């Protein structure tokens, strides 16, 4: 009888174990969501300003600080290009500062822009590109070349009552040149006959048995002046 009771207990335990629980599986806890990283605000360009002509080609670029809602550390990407769409960049740098200095070629047009990037790699958009210019080297103006005689030849004797005086000159910079002509009988006090004229000739009425003197002053539009020699001719 004791054996039957023991067997009954064992069978009951096995049946209970196999039946399991009616409560179902243990619930799996939801994962903790990662915090959302906010991108930095857009920085603002400060210098050089739009359409500025930079006299010094060592230019210090400046921009205003961006902010980050999460307090992340911010770096700035600076791009400078000579094309407005930035399809190529002449300079492309990262810096934690609010300024960066560049030595730029002279006589060129450039565009620049900046964006902010936080330490978790979230970034703002680029600022609107700003155009500026670097000044080209100052040009050294070369004065016109010395004028030369075409006619009459120097110290010639003329038998006519009039003569067409002609000369020529050139400018090494190919500047437009104008002429002053001095003509008379006193080489120490020649009167001005033609002033700032483009013509290179003068029809002179002559007296017999007289010696005449003349000279040409050549001027360019940049203020360059060349004074020619004094030439002469005589009449019978």
UniProtKB/TrEMBL annotation:
InterPro entries associated with the record: FN3_sf (IPR036116), Ig-like_fold (IPR013783)
The organism's place on the tree of life at top rank: Bacteria
Coiled coil: none
Region span, Disordered: 21-43
Listed name of the protein: Fibronectin type III domain-containing protein
């Amino acid at each position: 009888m004791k054996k039957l009771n023991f067997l009954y207990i064992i069978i009951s335990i096995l049946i209970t174990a196999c039946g399991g629980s009616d409560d179902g599986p243990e619930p799996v806890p939801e994962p903790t969501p990662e915090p959302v990283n906010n991108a930095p605000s857009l920085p603002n360009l400060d210098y050089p300003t739009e359409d500025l002509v930079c006299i010094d080609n060592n230019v210090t670029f400046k921009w205003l600080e961006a902010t980050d809602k999460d307090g992340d550390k911010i770096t700035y990407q600076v791009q400078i290009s000579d094309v407005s769409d930035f399809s190529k960049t002449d300079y492309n740098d990262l810096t934690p500062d609010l300024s960066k200095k560049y030595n730029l070629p002279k006589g060129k047009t450039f565009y620049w822009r900046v964006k902010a990037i936080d330490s978790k790699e979230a970034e703002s958009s680029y600022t609107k590109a700003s155009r500026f210019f670097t000044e080209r080297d100052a040009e050294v103006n070369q004065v016109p070349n010395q004028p030369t005689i075409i006619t009459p030849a120097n110290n010639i004797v003329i038998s006519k009552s009039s003569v067409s005086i002609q000369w020529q000159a050139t400018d090494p910079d190919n500047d437009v040149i104008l002429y002053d002509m001095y003509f008379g009988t006193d080489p120490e006090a020649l009167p001005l006959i033609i002033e700032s004229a483009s013509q290179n000739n003068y029809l002179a009425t002559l007296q017999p048995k007289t010696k005449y003197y003349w000279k040409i002053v050549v001027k360019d539009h940049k203020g360059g002046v060349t004074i020619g020699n004094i030439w002469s001719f005589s009449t019978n």
